[in-house]
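Re-run with default settings, no changes from the original entry. Doing this only to confirm the output is reproducible before filing.
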Amino acid sequence: NPPTQDELIRLAKSEDTQKEKEETIIGFKTVRFHGPDFIDEFTKDLIPSADFLMETFPCARFIINIRGDVEKQVESWKNSFSLDLDGDEIRQYNKWLINVAAHLGQDRARLLDMSEWSKRDNSGVEVLNDLIEWLGFEDCTYDSLLHSNKNGYGIDRQRMFLGENCRYKGN
């Protein structure tokens, strides 16, 4: 579990807790498997990139997000990255990501289809609850989804509560 804000402040001010600071892991990193030209030699075989991530981050778990609704993905990439792609290119990219997830294995990677888990009717809550259990948390339950682009690019001010006993296993 990330430390509380008070604990982070204590760690930052303390000079004798270097070992604690080094053992504290906070955050995540998003990695995109594509270059500016989208389909190039780098993306044709993503397995060496997956091997690099596994070697570089031996304790990491990877959540690989695809979007099964290819038409919406084409529109999103066009708007976000000014990429002029067709559905076949997105389908091929999704296949590569599915192969990466399979290569990483079920203990290291979880494949999520954004078209399934991000539905506004909260049907994706079960998917996210399964995901946080897979990540190693227990007694944690989402009861709704938080939308980072609510109604376009608005902020969803809903408060999330995962439960009084939510914790990382073993803590």
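The chain has a mean pLDDT of 76. The chain has eight helices and four strands.
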